[in-house]
Amino acid sequence: MDETRYRSARTPSRTGRGSSTMGGMPLTDLPWWRWRARIRSALHMLSDPAFQQEAWLDGPGGYGDATDAVYRLVEDTWLDRWSAEKYVGTIFRDSAEAVAVDAVVLRVLRILHEVGAEAPATGYLGHRDWPDAVRSAREAHVRMAVADGDDPDLPPTPLEALHLLTRVS
Question: Cα–Cα distance between 80 and 106 in angstroms, integer?
Fold first, then answer.
């Protein structure tokens, strides 16, 4: 699989900070369990239309917006640059999880590139391909939540709680 098959709309400055691990990914990136928590958080939000209506369109906030969820899915993991297969055995338990996450990444990045990085939630939710992205995210979210012994139908975790869970000590 071509590791450079898709690119993020936002270009992180990672040039020149290579390491000998994970294909040149910097040593300062998050450990696998923090990546998994952030990916699961993003998938949860991307997979729940009721949540999107309540938190992104009507709600008080506290969860970030649609663009934030997309970036949480790809930012620290570089899933905008290579396949989730690269992380089987670390972030992802098996190839089925990786394939499901890759499907979501491709869908949401395509939408991101069309609506723009600073698009409001309505830009995502109104996009013709959004329902497919939601279905794909739901499949990946359920797969990962069940594998972790969690209830996939509980409400998403607010960003503040996610930050406490994944903060660097």
Answer: 8
Q: Which residues pair with 88 in a beta bridge?
A: 92
Task: Encode pLDDT of 33-55 as tens digits.
Answer: 788 888 999 999 999 999 899 88
Contact 142, 104 (CB under 8 A): no
pTM of the model: 0.77
3-state secondary structure string across 96-135: HHHHHHHHHHHHHHHHHHHHCCCCCHHHHHCCCCHHHHHH
- Supply φ then ψ for residue 92, to 5 degrees: -110, 140
pLDDT in tens, 99-116: 999 999 999 999 999 999
How far, in Å, CA of 137 to CA of 101, rounded? Answer: 7
What digits encode the pLDDT tens for the residues 69-93?
888 898 767 899 999 999 999 999 9
